[in-house]
């Protein structure tokens, strides 16, 4: 049985926290590939690229300072490179852009239709009746979940 390949899409404070947990859970697992790509919106901090800082220090000094990320988390600035071959996609982008981001990836057809996705956006719904988000509907349609 092939191992699952996980990709985290987003690297803010919530994305980095999720990446820390996913990284710990995929290490030495028979179910998952050990390396977990984390797509990082490239920024420059003190003259250095954020992806280089994360990959060298295993810390997102901009969004989650003083918290170490597991060494199997790899920061990738190019989204297509980050999702290549992923069978599990964890969306942790701001809720304002989740649906547009999700649709742009679907339109690029950069992953398998057997891939699975989960959105961990930090928006809480105060609607009296729970509703599925548009990204949840797309997950069902394009990822068979």
Outline of this structure?
With 145 residues, this protein is α/β, with parallel strands linked by helices. The chain contains five helices and nine strands. It has a five-stranded parallel beta sheet. A two-stranded antiparallel ribbon has the order 3-4. It has a two-stranded antiparallel ribbon with strand order 5-6.
Query: Mind summarizing the main beta sheet?
Result: 5 strands, parallel
Uncertain parts: 124-145
Tell me the radius of gyration: 15 Å
So how many helices?
A: 5
Report how far apart the termini are: 20 Å
Q: Topology of this structure?
A:
Elements: E1 6-9, H1 13-26, E2 36-39, E3 44-45, E4 48-49, H2 50-57, E5 59-60, E6 64-68, E7 73-76, H3 79-83, E8 88-91, H4 98-108, E9 116-119, H5 134-143
Parallel strand pairs: 1-2, 1-8, 2-7, 8-9
Antiparallel strand pairs: 3-4, 5-6
Helix pairs in contact: 4-5
Q: In words, what does this structure look like?
A:
There is one protein chain. Helix content is 33%, strand content 21%. The protein is α/β, with parallel strands linked by helices and 145 residues long. A five-stranded parallel β-sheet has the order 7-2-1-8-9. Strands 3-4 form a two-stranded antiparallel sheet. The model is unreliable at 124-145 (pLDDT under 50).
Tags for this model:
5-stranded parallel β-sheet; disordered C terminus; 145 residues; alpha/beta; 21% strand
